[in-house]
């Protein structure tokens, strides 16, 4: 005779069989397999199977020897099963109305306690708890978990432009996401995986509150269980006993709990499987598995950190919490500002949009909370971003678990907080210098092995080192989320910002400036953020900034034509009388010259090429304000307008406020008078014909007149290689100014020295 699996599992729990004993017991009495077949299925010998079963008989107090024990236990189980069926049928005798009344009665009894347990949240340095509903932002989940996909690094990088790496695959997922609540409706058993701080617990609390308030699954009774608390109960009850005990506190009887479970009327929310200590892990997993199998009609949702999941629940659908998208970030920030009465939250959003590195962190709810807390103090982000990133990293490495009193298994106990940072810095530096954003698991384990082999009490055996390295990698991923698995056995830093930060940390610690400040690095956009972070980390950035300045000057020192251009920039700037730094004026004339050359190559009525090319970032950073009254009627504004007219709109000359020399005014009016009627129809062919036939020669005369009277608008005839070099030179100088303005510690003398010699020809710098 075969007995139902569900009944046998219940008996195994009742008589406290071990997991191994339960496996043998259930197969033995649920199937008609031979002893050899059962042993084969369990991957043990027939002798080991008989030993297990002898322990099973003892648990049921079936003593004696010989084959009669099987028959006596079977008779006992058959009798118990008849009782089990009677109990089950009595439960099912409730009418639908009676069952609904019971559900509503229990919901009412539990309402206040669920609200108290799940209605508030507290994160990081919040001074007091807040209502979950006030800050909650809808969670989206991915049904296709990216770390499960099989692909190569080339596939992950295929959408990335190496010249302007836009972080595809690092902070943004292209898989289609669905709302978390939709996933709970769709699947009766759901395992929600997510990185540290991704909002898993808040999501479960929100589900409990929404169900409690009849906004979601109002036909169910919610129960929220922190698995860590369940695991630490001294008496080690079963999960069923624990749930029954919780409901008894609500004045709900055991019989009522049994009815609700058997009729599938509970929404069972199990939070933080990853937070259970390793010694309790197997027991808790077994309890969850058994309960979800026995009472499978109920709705189960479990949360766990992605990399910490060590057991696959067969009947559970796994989904992963998606990073926040722009809409979710906007909603979260709006809720935060309204909650804290901070006024206009658009300033926060604008700052995020202007800073891609900080915005990248905002995709994680925990780090977005940090950004909001930091922004509260001065309604802006700190200029020194390295301090902001360090705080975020410390939260992920240590504080987030500490604030919730969670002790995780420390696979790498010899790694202090500082050593963890050193290890991550070594990994970041090695990979970033090679231009690697994704790395294979074996490579990563080798980097870890190279680091830990030099630590006290390190393993000398290569195999043991490899095992330790694998365990450390999994711990870093599970506990901190700083390294994440992007596809099977392919990893990256969770945010490129963190890879840049740890690379900078490595250089800041060893001060290997000659290796850092190479021409390749200062002209490579990939290294820009690293330089900004390093200068922010140093106690004194004088030496580094001087070396960067020296390398920038050398960049164009050997090209006589480029030096002639810089000499003109210096002379022209010195002739202009405005109350601004000479370096700012030099930046202005440098830029309008290059912008004019680019615009005059392809005249176009549709696009203001001159204004599109004009990049006044350095000039503005040094204090120049083109809209200021001191500039409005100055030579600078006159030169700017003339170059704009040359580059963009010779047919739209209508600024009567500007005073030009007579020859200039005559040429401008003559060009304007030849404007064709059909120009406004934006017929590009007609415009080109008009330009070639009537205007090109006049514009050429105008340019010569501007050169004659204004000493601006020269034909520099730069080769493509020289244009490329000038762009590199300009961007490197922009980097230098941004470093100066990054909140770094630099002496006034060095700051003045750099600003005064910015964009000067080499002949003017060396004598200084």
Write the layout of secondary structure elements.
Elements: H1 5-14, H2 19-30, H3 35-41, H4 46-59, H5 68-92, H6 96-118, E1 120-121, E2 130-131, H7 132-135, E3 140-142, H8 153-157, E4 177-179, H9 180-186, E5 189-194, H10 200-212, E6 221-226, H11 227-231, H12 239-249, H13 254-262, E7 266-271, H14 278-294, E8 299-305, E9 317-321, H15 326-339, H16 346-354, H17 356-361, H18 365-378, H19 385-403, H20 417-433, E10 439-440, H21 441-452, H22 462-480, E11 483-487, E12 490-493, H23 496-510, H24 513-516, H25 519-522, H26 528-537, H27 542-555, H28 560-574, H29 582-601, H30 609-613, H31 617-621, H32 629-632, H33 635-647, H34 662-673, H35 684-710, H36 720-740, H37 748-756, H38 762-765
Parallel strand pairs: 5-8, 5-9, 6-7, 7-8
Antiparallel strand pairs: 1-2, 3-4, 3-9, 10-12, 11-12
Helix pairs in contact: 1-2, 2-4, 6-10, 20-23, 21-22, 23-26, 26-36, 27-36, 28-29, 29-33, 34-35
Give average pLDDT, whole number: 83
Shape: elongated
**Total number of beta strands:** 12
Q: What is the C-alpha radius of gyration, as a whole number of Å? A: 35 Å
Question: Helix count?
Answer: 38
SS-based class: alpha/beta
Instruction: Bin the strand percentage.
Output: 5-15%
| Distance N to C terminus | 101 Å
Main sheet record: 7 strands, mixed
* Count of domain modules: 5
Taking pLDDT < 50 over at least 5 consecutive residues as the criterion, the unreliable ranges are 161-173
Q: Specify the helix fraction band.
A: 55-70%
Q: For the largest beta sheet, what order do the strands appear in spatially?
A: 4-3-9-5-8-7-6
């Amino acid at each position: 005779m075969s007995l139902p699996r569900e009944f046998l599992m219940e008996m195994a729990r009742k008589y406290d069989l071990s997991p191994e004993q339960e496996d043998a017991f259930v197969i033995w009495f649920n199937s008609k397999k031979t002893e050899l077949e059962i042993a084969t299925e369990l991957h043990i010998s027939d002798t080991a199977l008989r030993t297990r079963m002898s322990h099973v008989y003892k648990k049921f107090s079936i003593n004696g020897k010989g084959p009669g024990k099987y028959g006596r236990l079977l008779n006992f189980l058959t009798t118990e099963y008849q009782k089990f069926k009677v109990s089950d049928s009595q439960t099912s005798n409730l009418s639908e109305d009676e069952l609904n009344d019971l559900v509503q009665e229990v919901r009412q009894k539990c309402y206040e306690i669920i609200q108290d347990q799940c209605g508030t949240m507290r994160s990081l340095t919040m001074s007091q708890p807040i209502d979950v509903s006030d800050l909650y932002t809808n969670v989206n989940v991915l049904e296709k978990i990216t770390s499960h996909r099989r692909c190569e690094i080339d596939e992950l990088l295929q959408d990335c432009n190496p010249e302007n790496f836009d972080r595809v695959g690092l902070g943004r997922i292209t898989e289609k996401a669905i709302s978390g609540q939709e996933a709970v409706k769709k699947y009766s058993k759901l395992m929600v995986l997510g990185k540290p701080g991704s909002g898993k617990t808040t999501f479960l609390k929100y589900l409990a509150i929404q169900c409690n308030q009849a906004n979601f699954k109002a036909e169910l009774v919610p129960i929220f269980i922190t698995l860590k608390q369940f695991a630490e109960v001294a008496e080690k009850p079963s999960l069923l006993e624990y749930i029954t005990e919780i409901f008894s506190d609500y004045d709900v009887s055991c019989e009522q709990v049994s009815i609700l479970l058997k009729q599938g009327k509970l929404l069972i929310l199990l939070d933080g499987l990853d937070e259970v200590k390793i010694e309790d892990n197997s027991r808790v997993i077994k309890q969850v598995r058994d309960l979800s199998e026995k009472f499978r009609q109920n709705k189960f949702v479990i949360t766990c950190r992605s990399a910490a999941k060590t057991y696959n629940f067969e009947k559970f659908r796994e989904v992963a919490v998606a990073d926040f998208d722009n809409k979710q970030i906007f909603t979260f920030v709006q809720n935060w500002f309204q909650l804290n009465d901070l006024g206009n939250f658009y300033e926060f959003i604008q700052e995020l949009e202007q800073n891609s590195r900080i915005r990248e962190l905002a995709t994680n709810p925990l780090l977005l909370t940090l950004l909001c807390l930091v922004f509260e103090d001065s309604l802006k982000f700190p200029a020194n971003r390295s301090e902001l990133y360090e705080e975020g990293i410390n939260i992920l490495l240590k504080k987030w678990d500490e604030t919730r009193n969670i002790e995780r298994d420390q696979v790498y106990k010899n790694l202090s907080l500082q050593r963890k940072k050193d290890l991550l810095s070594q990994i970041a530096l090695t990979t970033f210098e090679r231009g690697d954003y994704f790395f294979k698991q074996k490579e990563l384990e080798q980097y870890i092995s190279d680091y830990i082999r030099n630590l006290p009490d390190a393993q000398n055996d290569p195999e043991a080192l490899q095992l330790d390295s694998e365990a450390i990698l999994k711990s870093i991923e599970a506990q901190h989320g700083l390294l994440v698995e992007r596809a099977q056995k392919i990893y990256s830093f969770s945010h490129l910002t963190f890879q840049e930060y740890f690379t900078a940390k490595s250089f800041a610690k060893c001060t290997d400036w000659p290796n850092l400040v190479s021409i390749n690095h200062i002209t490579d956009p990939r290294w820009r953020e690293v330089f900004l972070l390093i200068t922010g980390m140093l106690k004194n950035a004088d030496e580094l900034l001087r070396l960067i300045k020296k390398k920038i000057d050398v960049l164009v020192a050997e090209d006589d034509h480029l030096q002639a251009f810089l000499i003109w920039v210096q002379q022209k700037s010195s002739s202009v009388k405005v109350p601004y730094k000479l370096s700012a004026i030099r930046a202005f004339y440098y830029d309008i010259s290059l912008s004019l050359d680019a615009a005059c190559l392809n005249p176009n009525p549709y696009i203001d090429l001159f204004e599109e090319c004009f990049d006044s970032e350095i000039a503005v950073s040094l204090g120049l304000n083109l809209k200021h009254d001191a500039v409005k009627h100055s030579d600078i504004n006159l030169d700017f307008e003339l170059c704009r007219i040359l580059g963009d709109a010779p047919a739209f000359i209508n600024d009567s406020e500007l005073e030009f020399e007579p020859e200039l005014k005559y040429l401008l009016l003559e060009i304007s008078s030849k404007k064709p009627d059909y120009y406004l129809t934006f017929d590009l062919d007609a415009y080109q014909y008009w330009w070639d036939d009537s205007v090109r020669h006049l514009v050429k005369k105008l340019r010569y007149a501007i050169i004659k009277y204004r000493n601006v608008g020269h034909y520099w005839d730069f080769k493509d290689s020289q244009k490329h070099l000038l762009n590199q030179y300009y961007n490197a100088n922009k980097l230098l100014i941004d470093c100066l303005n990054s909140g770094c510690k630099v002496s006034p003398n060095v700051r003045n020295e750099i600003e005064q010699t910015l964009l000067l020809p080499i002949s003017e710098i060396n004598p200084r």
